[in-house]
Specification:
This protein has helices spanning 3-11, 15-22, 26-35, 40-60, 69-87, 107-114, 117-125, 129-140, 145-152, 157-181. The protein has 189 residues and is mainly α. Helix 1 (3-11) packs antiparallel against helix 2 (15-22), helix 3 packs across helix 4 and helix 8 packs across helix 10. The model is unreliable at 98-115 (pLDDT under 50).
């Protein structure tokens, strides 16, 4: 069943046919949940919650799709699962998603991978106090971005994420400058 056909089926009260088609997306959600501290049952519960939200939005006319239904359901599930992990007081430091998979979970590992530890340490020490605090809280203490934003007075989680990214980029730039100044070069695989 295509996305427009699924939407039409829900609008016309043919929920069973729509849900049969929608359940083809469950394996992707199950993989996400199992990769992030959850079970098969957690994935099923989460997916059902997402279907209820999706169904309600379609029936109420509140849904404007800018992507596929699969992408929309996955986003709902990802957000619901993050909230569930927060509720369970689990850290999200090992959150496994494709768009975040390239980001190292440990700042020391990142810098060590690129070269000498002493140069990395100098690069970190050259950052401002606020940058060091953000990076330490995220990479060493494994605090969620929302908590960092609240503690350090950022406008929100997005602002904390932006600051973390800018600080990490500044550390990388400074690291490369120090390596170049010392006559070393960075080897890329």
């Amino acid at each position: 069943m295509s996305d427009p056909e699924i939407l039409e089926a829900i609008r016309n009260g043919r929920d069973h046919a729509a849900f049969v088609a929608l359940y083809t997306h469950l394996p992707k959600v199950a993989h996400l949940v199992r990769q992030n501290s959850g079970s098969k049952d957690d994935a099923k519960d989460l997916f059902q919650d997402a279907l209820v939200i999706f169904h309600r939005k379609v029936r109420n006319g509140d849904l404007t799709l800018t992507s596929s239904i699969s992408t929309f359901l996955f986003a709902i599930c990802r957000n619901l699962w993050r909230e569930e992990l927060r509720r369970r007081n689990r850290t999200l430091t090992n959150w496994k998603l494709e768009d975040e998979a390239d980001e190292p979970a440990d700042l020391t590992a990142l810098l060590a991978r690129e070269g000498e530890y002493s140069v990395a340490e100098k690069a970190l020490k050259s950052l401002g106090e606020k940058c060091l605090d953000v990076l330490k809280r995220f990479y060493v203490l494994h605090e969620p971005l929302q908590a960092i934003a609240k503690t350090l007075g950022f406008a929100g989680e997005g602002a904390a994420k932006t600051r973390k990214y800018k600080c990490l980029e500044a550390a990388r730039r400074r690291y490369k400058e120090l390596l170049t100044a010392s006559g070393n070069t960075i080897q890329h695989a």
